[in-house]
Specification:
By secondary structure, the chain is α/β, with parallel strands linked by helices. The chain is built from 10 helices and 8 strands.
Length: 216
């Protein structure tokens, strides 16, 4: 069993799609731009809010519009961050079991740090030891900096650490950090996309993760 398990947040621990989609379409409505479908927004998630908004806005908009859209989204989303967001089935039980077994449980997200900590406290309080979101673009995954910070917090080596996520960004992050990766198939990318990105270990549901963690 790995001593330190680091989790992605959106699409891995929490189903945030409903609130992210509501936030994106709130912003688009404010600019009188066409709405995006949930499936479109699902495909845009993974690289943080600025990239989510750039992908959602019509092509060719000005940088001023992008900046205003990001600001509007951030304000709306923080006010509605838990309207529809819930943990995926089995996640609270999984995190509680890992903590009982003495495993370090960390969360590393491309969400802004304020949003990451707020949503984790509201929906996963007491079930993790460390949560950190990106302070700026330079920290965002797939750069490994936030993973290294989490490992330093726990005093964990690369061999003792695994990253669990639902996207190609998470796979690349683990590679860049030099640690093992488990890809979950219940999130925002399907198994075929994860395989194409190089995933080799898969969890179909939360109940499968303990056995996978013990096998690494």
């Amino acid at each position: 069993m790995k001593k330190t398990v680091l989790f992605d947040l959106d699409g891995t621990l929490l189903d945030t799609l409903g609130d992210l989609a509501a936030g994106v379409n709130h912003v688009l409505s404010g600019f009188s731009f066409p709405q995006r479908t949930r499936e479109e927004i699902r495909s845009f998630i993974g690289n943080g809010v600025p990239t989510l908004l750039r992908r959602s806005l019509p092509a060719g908009v000005s940088e001023d519009t992008v900046s205003r859209a990001i600001s509007d989204f951030t304000a709306y989303y923080l006010a509605h961050i838990c309207d529809n967001t819930v943990p995926y089935p089995g996640i609270p039980e999984l995190l509680a079991a890992l903590k009982r077994d003495g495993v370090n449980v960390g969360i590393v997200s491309n969400k802004k740090n304020e949003a990451t900590r707020l949503i984790c406290e509201k929906l996963l309080g007491g079930l993790y030891d460390y949560a950190h979101g990106a302070a700026n673009e330079d920290e965002r995954k797939p750069k490994p900096d936030m993973v290294y910070d989490a490992m330093a917090h726990f005093g964990a080596s690369k061999d003792e650490t695994v990253y669990v996520g639902d996207s190609n960004v998470d796979i690349e992050t683990a590679w860049n950090a030099g640690i093992d990766c488990i890809s979950v198939t219940w999130g925002y990318r399907d198994k075929a996309a994860l395989e194409k990105a190089g995933a080799t270990a898969f969890a179909e549901d939360a109940k499968q993760l303990p056995a996978l963690l013990k096998a690494l």
